Amino acid sequence: MRTYFIEEKSEIEAVIKACKVCFLGISDEENRPYVVPMNFAYHENTIFLHSGQFGRKWEIMKKNPNVCVTFNLGEEIKYQDEHVACSWRMSSKSVIAEGKVEFIEDFDEKEQILHLFMKQYSDKTFKFNAPAIKNVGIMKMKIDTLSAKEFGAKTITPWNS
Questions:
Q1: Residue 50 near residue 139 (C-beta atoms within 8 A)
Q2: How far apart are CA 155 and CA 152, in angstroms?
Q3: Which terminus of the chain is less hemmed in, N or C, by CB atoms within 10 Å?
């Protein structure tokens, strides 16, 4: 399986925007990892996450704001010869972003971010009622480090599709 780094920011952003779910990686006080799938929004080198303002994920991030967010796109199995195990591969693209989450408390900022979430999934315009905005937990992560790779692609030998 060949792996290529994706260097173009526009291609990296295209992978992020094409994903429906990201995977949030966090670590508790005892260094136990915890990974959870989440909906997200992406805007100007920033990832936004939302959840209830309670629970394991929320408590871990309050104590340790260092997070890793992973996006994966494709997940297509390909092979040169279906009878040769070593010719099988996964074709996909992934992006890994690291940074620190910041908890957003400002009502107006939370409302603006909720609109970013909906733009990730729909072209429609939505209105949010005050209790929904007040009660949602919003996390904002400016991306400190970012890496992206393409797996199992750009091969010279023809593969099945």
A1: yes
A2: 7
A3: C
This prediction's pTM: 0.86
**Beta carbons of 100 and 144 less than 8 angstroms apart:** yes
The three-point CA angle 73-154-93 to 5° equals 15
Would you identify the CATH topology of the domain 3-151?
A: Pnp Oxidase; Chain A (2.30.110)
| Closest alpha carbon to 114 in 56, 43, 23 | 43
- What's the pLDDT band for 159 if we cut at 50, 70, 90? very low
Q: What is the mean pLDDT of residues 91-117?
A: 96
Q: Which among 150, 113, 120, 130 has a CA at the least distance from the CA of 12?
A: 150
* Amino acid letter, residue 74: G
Cα–Cα distance, 104 to 138 (Å, whole number): 5
Q: What is the CA radius of gyration of the chain?
A: 18
Average pLDDT of the chain, as a whole number:
90
Q: Spell out the residues 6+ positions from residue 71 whose beta carbon is closer than 8 angstroms to its own.
A: 15, 16, 19, 22, 23, 94, 95, 96, 97
> Is the distance from CB of 88 to CB of 79 less than 8 angstroms?
yes
CB atoms within 10 A of CB 140: 19
User: DSSP secondary structure string, 76-113?
Assistant: EEEES-TT-GGGEEEEEEEEEEEEEEEEE--HHHHHHH
